[in-house]
Specification:
single chain, mainly alpha, globular
Length: 374
C-alpha cells in the first residue's frame, strides 16, 4: 500500500486543482477552434496542445516544463526567449509573399502604415494601466496581429510576458474572421462597400527582384532594430523572385516555416503554466490586445476613407482592415465581406497590398520601439 501511495504522488492526479483544469480546458478549446472551426489550425492546434502539455499537473514537479532548468522543453523554448524562431518564420513568409500588388499600387502601403496606429494607442493605454514602458511596448505590438513580431519584441523587452503576449497575439490572428467584419460594416456604408478598384498593372520580374533589396535598405535604415525580421522577410522574397534559388525558397516556405511554427506554438503554449498565466496581468494583456487589434483594424478602414477624399480612383475602404499583418486572413476578410454586397467584386488582390504592407509596418514598428527602448 505504501508503494501505491508513493506511486500516486508521482502522477499528475495528485497535483490536480481548479487552475490546472481551467488551463486544460483553454487548451482543448484552442484545439477545437483549430480543427472544428478551421481558425488558423496551423497556429491554434500546436498552441492548444502546448497549453495542455504545460498544464498537466506534475510536469513542473518532475522538472519537465519550459521553466525547469535543463529540461528538453526549456531548450526548445530557448528559441522563443532569444528571438530565434520569429526571423526564421519571417524568412518563410517572405518566400511565400507576392509583393506585386503593392509594387503596382504603392499608395496602398499607407493603409498598412495606418493600421500600426493601434500599436501606439495600446502602448499609451498599457502605460495608463500600470505597465512599465518596456512591457507596454511589448503589449502594444499585438495590434499588428503579428505573432512572430510580438514574440520577437517581447523576448527582447519583457521576456517574463512572452507567454501571455504570444497567446494573445496568435489568438487574435486566428479570430480575424470573427472580429474584423463587424468593425468594417460599422465604419462603412453600402455605397463604399461596392466600390470597384482598377485591376493592378502587370509588374515586371526586374521590379520584383529590386523591391526586396531596396525595401530592406530603406526600412533597415529607418528601423535598424528590426533588421533581423526585415532582413529575413526580404531575403525570403528575394529567394522566391530571383528565379535562381527556387530550392532555397521552397525550403524556406515549407520545411523551415513549418518546423518553426510547430516549435513556437508548442513551447509558447507550454509556457502558459497555470501558476504563471492565471493572474490579473494576463487578463489585462488580453484586454489590451483586443483593443489594439480592433483599433488597428478600424484605423485602416478610416484612413482608406480619408484617402478617398483626395483620390480620383477610389479605394474600397474594406481593404483598409487588411493593414493588420495577419497574412493572408486579413486579406480574405474584405473579399468575403465585399462579396456579401456584390458577388462580382473581387477585392482579394487589392487587399493583399495593405496586408503585406502591414507585415512590413509591424516589423518596422517593432524595430523603432526596440531601437528607442532596447
Amino acid at each position: 500500500m505504501a508503494e501505491l501511495i508513493n506511486f500516486f504522488y508521482t502522477t499528475g492526479f495528485a497535483w490536480m486543482n481548479v487552475s490546472y483544469l481551467a488551463m486544460l480546458l483553454i487548451g482543448f478549446v484552442f484545439i477545437w477552434l483549430g480543427i472544428a472551426k478551421d481558425y488558423e489550425p496551423l497556429l491554434l492546434v500546436p498552441i492548444g496542445f502546448g497549453i495542455v502539455l504545460g498544464n498537466l499537473p506534475g510536469v513542473s514537479a518532475m522538472m519537465q516544463g519550459v521553466y525547469n532548468q535543463g529540461s528538453v522543453m526549456q531548450y526548445l523554448y530557448f528559441g522563443v526567449l532569444k528571438g530565434i524562431y520569429p526571423p526564421l518564420i519571417f524568412l518563410g513568409i517572405g518566400a511565400m509573399t507576392d509583393f506585386s500588388t503593392l509594387i503596382a499600387n504603392p499608395k496602398l502601403i499607407l493603409l498598412g502604415a495606418a493600421a500600426q496606429f493601434g500599436i501606439f494607442a495600446t502602448f499609451a493605454g498599457a502605460m495608463l494601466l500600470g505597465f512599465n514602458v518596456l512591457e507596454a511596448a511589448s503589449i502594444g505590438i499585438i495590434g499588428g496581429a503579428d505573432g512572430p513580431t510580438s514574440i520577437y519584441l517581447s523576448s527582447k523587452l519583457a521576456p517574463h510576458l512572452v507567454g501571455p503576449i504570444a497567446v494573445a497575439a496568435y489568438s487574435y490572428m486566428a479570430l480575424v474572421p470573427v472580429i474584423q467584419p463587424p468593425i468594417m460594416k460599422l465604419l462603412t456604408n453600402s455605397k463604399e462597400r461596392v466600390i470597384r478598384m482598377k485591376t493592378p498593372r502587370i509588374v515586371s520580374q526586374r521590379e520584383k527582384i529590386l523591391f526586396p533589396i531596396i525595401a530592406f535598405v530603406v526600412t533597415g535604415l529607418i528601423a535598424p532594430g528590426g533588421v533581423a525580421l526585415l532582413g529575413m522577410l526580404f531575403l525570403g522574397n528575394l529567394l522566391k523572385e530571383s528565379g535562381v534559388t527556387e530550392r532555397l525558397a521552397v525550403t524556406a516556405r515549407n520545411a523551415i516555416i513549418d518546423t518553426c511554427t510547430i516549435l513556437i506554438g508548442v513551447t509558447v503554449g507550454a509556457s502558459t503554466s497555470a501558476d504563471v498565466f492565471l493572474n490579473p496581468i494576463s487578463i489585462k494583456i488580453f484586454a489590451l490586445g483586443c483593443f489594439s487589434f480592433m483599433m488597428a483594424s478600424a484605423t485602416g478602414v478610416l484612413f482608406a476613407k480619408f484617402m478617398n477624399l483626395f483620390l480620383k480612383e477610389k479605394i474600397n475602404p474594406l481593404i483598409g482592415s487588411a493593414g493588420v499583418s495577419a497574412v493572408p486572413d486579413s486579406a480574405r476578410v474584405p473579399q468575403i465581406v465585399g462579396q456579401q454586397y456584390d458577388k462580382t467584386n473581387y477585392l482579394l488582390m487589392h487587399a493583399m497590398a495593405p496586408n503585406v504592407a502591414g507585415v512590413i509596418g509591424s516589423a518596422v514598428a517593432a524595430g523603432v520601439l526596440l531601437g528607442i527602448l532596447g
